[in-house]
Design brief:
1 helix; 211 residues; mainly beta
Length: 211
């Protein structure tokens, strides 16, 4: 699927609600974008800010099919954000993300969402389900420290971030005979020029998906 660019408003708002991805209708027309902000934990100074489109992987379509066929067959839909240091290509301008990607190349941390927020077509937070969802995750001081250049949304088998069940395929390998029900599934993937996160900074990532 090609990268799609869209503009929305106010990614930082939160709403008190839950999201259960197994009841999503389809990922085939889905599109996404990512808002990134890193601030100094003491002063609040903005150290890095970015907004860019992402790639929805081919495996996201398989996850949708799994959950539509049997919503109870998998405990989690989009439930964690993974960050890493393994984007291929030039450090400042890595290779574009591919929909064939099945896991991060060098994952260093993953974490569950701090909030999920439904939004209307104008980008306003709403308390009823819509086809636009913000998934927000914050890595605090001491978390995900390193030269980050890749990230992705996961559907994991375990709710414990320390328990990894990565797909055995390494990009560009994509064996369609692999049974994804046995592994964590990478649903969205993004590469970017290095963001060096020190242990004194907080990194907040909002991944907006429009279904």
């Amino acid at each position: 699927m090609s990268i799609v660019r869209d503009q929305f408003k106010r990614p930082g708002e939160e709403a008190t609600l839950g999201l259960h991805i197994p009841h999503a209708v389809s990922l085939s027309p889905a599109k996404g974008e990512v808002f990134i902000e890193m601030v100094d934990a003491v002063s609040g100074e903005v150290l890095h800010k970015d907004h860019r489109p992402n790639v929805i992987t081919l495996d996201a379509g398989i996850l949708a099919a799994i959950l539509l066929r049997d919503p109870d067959s998998r405990d989690h839909g989009f439930n964690m954000l993974s960050v890493g240091t393994g984007a291929l290509g030039n450090t400042l301008a890595p290779n574009a993300p591919s929909p064939d990607q099945r896991k991060l190349n060098a994952e260093i941390a993953r974490k569950a969402w701090s909030s999920t927020t439904f939004r209307d077509a104008s980008g306003n937070a709403v308390a009823i389900p819509t086809n636009i969802v913000d998934f927000t995750c914050t890595y605090d001081e001491g978390e995900a420290v390193g030269a980050l250049n890749e990230m992705g949304i996961l559907s994991t088998l375990s709710s414990n971030p320390a328990i990894l069940n990565p797909n055995p395929n390494t990009f560009p390998t994509r064996d369609v005979a692999v049974d994804l029900t046995q592994y964590d599934i990478l649903c969205n993937y993004l590469t970017f020029g290095v963001i060096t996160k020190p242990n004194t900074a907080r990194l907040t990532i909002t991944w907006r998906i429009t279904f």
